[in-house]
Design goal:
The complex is a heterodimer of chains A (about 300) and B (about 400).
Chain A lengths: L2 H29 L6 H19 L5 E2 L2 E2 H24 L8 H23 L26 H23 L1 H11 L1 H6 L4 H26 L6 H16 L4 H17 L1 H5 L9 H15 L11
Antiparallel strand pairs in A: 1-2
Helix pairs in contact in A: 1-5, 1-8, 1-9, 1-10, 2-3, 2-4, 2-8, 2-9, 3-8, 5-6, 5-8, 6-8, 9-10, 9-12, 10-12
Chain B lengths: L4 H6 L3 H23 L4 H28 L6 H16 L11 H23 L4 H21 L1 H4 L21 H4 L3 E4 L5 E4 L1 H29 L1 H11 L1 H6 L4 H27 L9 H14 L4 H23 L7 H19 L14 H9 L14
Antiparallel strand pairs in B: 1-2
Helix pairs in contact in B: 3-9, 3-10, 3-12, 3-13, 3-14, 4-5, 4-6, 4-12, 5-12, 9-12, 10-12, 13-14, 13-15, 14-15
The chains are: A mainly alpha (about 300), B mainly alpha (about 400).
Chain lengths: ~300, ~400
Amino acid sequence: MPVLEYLANGLVFSSIIVLASIGLSLVYSIADFANFAHGDTMTVGAYAALATFGVVGGLGVSVLGLPLGFFVALAVGVVTAAVVAAATHKLVYESLDTDSIGLLITSIGVAFVYRALVQIRFGSDFTGFGIQVLRPIEALVPYGVRVTQHDVAIVVSAALLVGGLHLLLQHTDLGRKMRATADNPDLARVSGIRTARVKLWTWLIGAGLAGAGGVFLGLYNQLSPRMGFNILLVVFAAVILGGIGSVYGAMLGGFLIGMINQLTPLLSDVGIPIGIEYANAVAFVIMVAVLLVRPNGIAGEAAT
Amino acid sequence: MDLDPRAAWAGLTRAERGVVGFVAALAALLVFGLLTGGLAPTYFLYLLGLVGMYVLLSFGLNAQWGYTGLINFSVAAFFGLGAYGTALLTADSSPIAGGFNPLVGLVVGLALAAVVAVVIGVPTLRLRADYLAIASLGLAEVVRLIVLNQREWTNGSAGLRGLPGFFEGWPVLATFPEAMPGLRIAVPFGATILLETPFWQALLNVGLVGVFVGASYLLLGRVHRSPWGRVLRTIRADEDLAEALGKDTYAFKMQSFVLGSVIMALAGVFYAHLNLFVSPGDFEPINTFYVWIAVILGGSGSNRGAMFGGFVVIAIREGTRFLNGAGFVPLDVAPLRLLVIGLLIVAVMRFRPQGVLPPQRELIWPGALGDADDAGTPRSAERGDPRE
């Protein structure tokens, strides 16, 4: 059984899910609604990177099989996703006089607008960055693990971003304010924290991470206007598994769901007739089971 | 109730006048299309059938979201289950058991939806509202994946063909379209209109959906005013209050969820015998959100609003197709439609979150309304939103 191979793939896929689920969890805790436009924010980031990469192309030397231009494109994708989401927050969500359910429904409309605009500009076909597909790293093939340098690049970049977020949350002023606002917005406000500004930063950071996740998803698979919406439920599963509102829970949940997703072939290897076409279904069923048994997730706080 | 049109017009709210104006303008446009030959009568009836289908779906969602406040994002799943339930029993190409009477298909389709509604409801209806949204969307996706991948049961992505019309095997109605004579109508200033077998077939379908819609409307209107409906409205407004009053809110939510799901499945059964073809594409999440826009635009909890919403959805679907076909907009239909739907959702939530026709008089017993009129109470006094 090529368990090692599944685990390696799981690690790569988890990295993408972790990036997406952190952003979703941050927004869930501070803006207090399930943001159904999060998946399409990933799509926006991925396509912004695609457009940039078309311009800067194979700029400069290559790192881990990726030209330097790709990292420029990645940065543009992150910034675009962040700016688009923050602008949506300012223009749409902030002007609404409604509860979290109303915001949830609105976010579906926002998701459709993002996706429609991407589809109008770039067409509905699958596309890719057009970077040459690499051969698996030779040194690992004897162990049955076939990963490329691109996969390593995804995992390393995700680890750097997650580590950076950890430092931000724990050791900077903004991070402390964000945690305080997520914990108790009213108390944070009377303590003199400008919560509106913290909220905006949360949107920027959360959507930026989603944009990075989208770019890596496009590198790992392909790009299509539906890529974000298709992965949204898997990301929700990760966030719920980890516990809504907990950034570290989202990391853990993203890791577990990504692994489970890629380990689904094991089920048919051991004789359970559930094929890989049900990889996402398995994640959703786990999500519902977690909601039933432990609605606050692995790292969630006490019942609210 | 007086029948003086001027008084009736004066008795309408501004929103109601707007809706009447919109419907009148749309009807005028369609009649114009019919008379000039731009719109084939058979296609017009087909569209009318689709409107009826969306109205049914909106009724179903209304029973869940509008009455009880359940965020159900698995509308497409119940619609698809109704369609597949009847298709698997009646279609020639069914891999399970084809050739049954469509009435059997109707019963099985509705029963299938009811069973799945209980199965989905048991784990999800105890959850917080926003979790229910996520979980129901996830479970709908599971249903879609099963239908797509279990080829030995469902034919997979090829779908099911060769369904009979709904009235196959009925005494008179089965042969009604063939038995009717072909008509030629010469319009003075337009093309000649031909009414032949497909037209009568389509007319029969519209009659069928009319019966479905009418029956559901009467049933839902009745239960909404009943004590049972009052509990649902209390749950929507304040679930803790309903619990404090000794109501088993979980049981009420389950009943409302199953009721709504069965009505959605009814729409699916109708669609299967209208289109004579079903495929896993019917389970696409976008279909769920078409119904959502119909309900929130029309006014959550209002069945009149749901009817209006059904018209608007078809107007969007066909309007984007028309704009595209006429070359006004150099865009594909799919993203254009998505853009319109998305903008409409945002606009409704921003400018009129209660919808165009929020529930008003339908919450008052007709008898009570008559008494109030006799007593000379100004009608405007009754028209406040009872939820406020």
